[in-house]
Write a structure and sequence with these properties.
Strand order of the largest sheet: 3-2-1-4-7
Largest sheet: 5 strands, mixed
Strand content: 15-25%
Number of strands: 12
Low-confidence stretches: none
CATH architecture of the largest domain: 2-Layer Sandwich
Mean pLDDT: 89
Length: 303
């Protein structure tokens, strides 16, 4: 059995899976509670021990938001409360604690790996995965291999493509990043600007998309802008990487039925002739399980 861990912006997830990828057990814990612990490593181990309940694992994979150094086996930097994980050698600590190999990689890369291996996309050797969640994650598989670039940042900063030179400043230092318009955080900002009634709900973004699904989306300006901005970002990714497919995941894509058809239409009008004629756009088949599976079946654990 394999263990998958995911440190996300909203939840800390644990998954136990068989060698064929079947997820036997899945647990979600509020990330905020974990990150506020006085002893983060002790708390992580406690959560794992309770989750495993004595079961023996053959290896473990860690999926984490932020900038991950896969060589050193740690998160180099992150924002918000998750910054507490920075520069902690998680791979080494957990490998030693459980006496099995562990690996760590960026959450979007793990998402892409999970979708590629278990989502039915393995025949595509060039694939980009974009996750629309608390922030925006991005990862590319090129010629069958994960793309890392020269400093582990290659392909993962799709959320920080600038789509508006006159837009607000992003926490990354750039101006008008895609993440400021099409992530959960970005949509909440836009809902606040419009003084939306959805802000009174526990989950304003979920309430917003539920309303669109029930009442229609054709006349909603925020949704129209969301679709146009996302299409611009995806067009840039298509023109840059020329993937066979783009798989869209994350919490926002639970409303894929009203999102996918509209962005397909716009991208056909915007993208460069050759890649747009080949690249197909789909929604995730695995959802929340994708990064856990990608982490647990990471190529570095197969060596």
């Amino acid at each position: 059995m394999r263990l998958g861990l995911e440190f996300g912006g909203t939840n800390f997830k644990l998954g136990l899976m068989k060698e064929n990828g079947y997820v036997m057990k899945l647990e979600l814990i509020q990330a905020k509670k974990l990150f506020q612990s006085n002893n983060i490593i002790k708390e992580i181990k406690n959560k794992i021990d309770l989750f495993l309940n004595g079961k023996v694992i053959s290896c473990g994979g860690i999926s984490s938001k932020g900038i991950v150094d896969v060589t050193k086996g740690m998160v180099l930097d992150d924002v918000g409360e998750a910054k507490i994980l920075s520069n902690i050698p998680l791979r080494e600590i957990l490998s030693s604690a459980y006496d099995v190999p562990f690996n760590i990689d960026n959450d979007a890369r793990c998402y892409a790996l999970g979708e590629s291996k278990f989502g039915g996309w393995s025949k595509y050797k060039n694939m980009t995965c974009v996750t629309l969640g608390t922030g925006i994650g991005c990862a590319s598989i090129l010629n069958g291999n994960l793309f890392y670039g020269s400093d582990n940042l290659g392909g993962i900063l799709g959320g920080h493509i600038s789509i508006n030179k006159n837009g607000p400043k992003c926490s990354c230092g750039n101006i008008g990043c895609l993440e400021l318009y099409c992530s959960k955080i970005g949509l909440i900002r836009l809902l606040k600007n419009s003084k939306s009634e959805h802000l009174s709900k526990k989950d304003p973004v979920k309430s917003f998309f539920t309303s669109l699904n029930e009442n229609g989306s054709s006349n909603n300006k925020i949704f129209k802008d969301f679709i146009n901005n996302l299409s611009i970002g995806l067009t840039n990714i298509i023109n840059a990487y020329s993937p066979d497919i783009i798989v869209l995941g994350g919490g926002i894509m639970k409303s894929n039925k009203i999102i996918i058809p509209k962005i397909r239409k716009i991208i056909k009008e915007m993208a460069f002739t050759v890649p747009k004629g080949r690249c197909q756009i789909f929604s995730s088949k695995l959802g929340d399980k994708a990064p856990l599976l990608g982490a647990a079946f990471h190529p570095k654990l197969e060596i």
